[in-house]
Specification:
The chain is α+β, with helices and mostly antiparallel strands. Among the domains are: 94 residues, 2-Layer Sandwich (Herpes Virus-1); 77 residues, no CATH class; 163 residues, Hect, E3 ligase catalytic domain fold, CATH 3.90.1750.10; 66 residues, no CATH class; 103 residues, Hect, E3 ligase catalytic domain (Hect, E3 ligase catalytic fold). The chain is 40% helix and 10% strand. The chain contains 29 helices and 20 strands. The strands form 9 sheets. Strands 17-18-20-19 form a 4-stranded mixed β-sheet. The longest helix is centred in the middle third of the chain and has 29 residues. 30% of the residues are buried.
Length: 724
Amino acid sequence: CVLCGRTDDCPEKYGEKRTYVEYNLTVHYYCLLMSSGIWQRGEEDEGVDGFLITDIRKEVKRAAKLKCNICKKKGASIGCVAPKCKRSYHFPCGLQRECIFQFMEDFRSYCWEHRPVQEFMDKEPRGASQCTICLDLVEHLPVYTVLKSPCCKNAWFHRECLQYQALSAGIFFFRCTVCNNKDKFQKEMLRMGIHIPERDASWELEENAYQDLLHCYQHCDVKRCLCKKGRDYNEPDSKWEIQRCQYCGSRGTHLACSSLKSWEQNWECMECRSIFAKSGKYSKRKKRTLAASENSNGTPCLLEEPPPKSPRQSSGSPRSFLLQSPKMMCQNLSPCSQLEQPASNRVTVSPSPVMSNWNWSLRHKYLRQQRKEVCNILKELKVQIQTKTTRLNINAENIWSSALKGFRQRIFSPTNTIEVNFSNCKNRSKTNTSSASKHHFFQVIMLHLQNSSLFEGSFGKNLSLDFQALKENLYFEVGKMIAVSLVHGGPPPGFFSKTLFKCLVYGPENVKPALEDVADVDVAQTIKTIKCANSLSSLQSALQDCCEFLTAAGCLRPVTALCDKNMLVNDILIYHVIKRITLPLESFRQGLKTLGVLEKMQTHPDVFSSIFCYKPERLSAETVYNLFTIHSSSDVNKVEGADFWMGYLQDVESGDSVVTLEDILLFVTGSSYIPAIGFDPEPTIKFLHIRYPIGNRLLNCLELPRTKTYQQFKNKMELTIRNT
């Protein structure tokens, strides 16, 4: 390694060791990451993960002048960040001397004297307990090799065990092994020098790792099997069909071998029966199962006893309002919803045009009120933003790649004020002191996301399953970008489906998807065929046609009644819309946690649905007029020119102008849309004795000329805005 001088190849300790023959260069990834004088200035595919080769050589040259305080050799590229501490060392030497390297934020390093330590209470017992990872004893001592859980009093770990666990579990699954806490635990472990890689767990990346789980248990375990073809023989819809134990599922019997008349009858293996018999709960448990297997009409029902539900909500609560099916939501909010109902339902309800317009007006009024509340909530989150700036250099010809690089750079912090600098393909920067670049940047990013392969669907979009994006952690980055956009004055998404929004807010286990959520035409057609089957034979024929798909989805099962199709359709929808995208959804949720956005969404779900699931309201003359505050010492209605301003907006809205309302907004604020968080400062208007209008984007102030006639006012407005 050109930085530490060692030949060791130990990815767990020093990171991946890479050799570049064309550059005559070998380097450990951690040595490079922790070096004090180098930054990621290139694209991810440039140099070594964004570290340019020229920069690496400069760092090697700089380190060659520094002597390691541990091994006394030259090439110490890492320095302690403590004030006034001048110790330098190699990465492997630092590990041996028990220095701490923080793999987060600015990638700080602390020497053995200034390293962070965990606080130990005097009352805590000084003994030994089991490390919950390796199960060996670990002493309760404030030493480097021992770490204490921040969330559990009696959880102690070996540092080495925790590091191996973190490398294996990745950022999504690394958590306290006792209480399962994730956020608090990860924060403390990062502080104490545990490296948590931003990737999925190693067991999730293994190909066909869970293939065995798709196979059902198929073996007859009774003492005397009557089947002549053997215990493994299974013939569906016959007496030789294998029925599994209703409790453990790991034992089976042929229907004939246990005198079962149909597969709908419950069967328990001897092991489970003996357990219930010893506990005295067998008879009660059996009665409850039988009761659950019958519906109100006394006919057998294939549904098992339902799992425990979330706490019951009152009928008027926001949660119950949002947990309705997408059709119900549309019925409540949209006058066009009658067209989405079946024909039989559509005939019974025929609202008058007056009633439809009234419902439409109510819907817009409701959404407008919700967006005002979102604006106030986002302003609370904006308090976190500091005056320190982070500049994003964006190539105008490849905005998405530039944005991804900017968000992934080590110096990027969502709490810093963001400045966007656009450059052309020749990298010639265009200086722009206004916020127009930032507004345009977030607008383009949001448009790109809406049309990207990460989402699927025509209008209300759900997450898609893109393995390459999952491998590159793009779902996390997209969630972070949306959160940053909302708090930093960008546009809201406005294209989420109700189902995706509910999965983010309530968790996927509490959401019931609908057929409208299926974007794949073939899958949607398969579900429709099953749903529309009007006889048992047509249902079985439909299942035979899509047998491979049902097997892959884990939904293939025997059907003996037409009513089985409802449960089957529900299982297919849950698999295709929710279970299939579990990993992308979890990664996306983690990204949305940036700046506390997801937490606010979960606290105010009905409010945030107005900006995530609905397109922003189209600009109108009234909206723009109400957006601006007219500065005047006298009554606004008596201000000379105020009526000209309102008349001009109405002309623009009706199309009697060469400019648009978006042009006017862009002229004043640098943005062609109203951000979810609103404008800061709020837009104002001044009527002055000037020749032409002036748009002050720093103050969001529109200075308008006083004119004698409306036509003069209109001519000056159009000439100035059009030329600008």
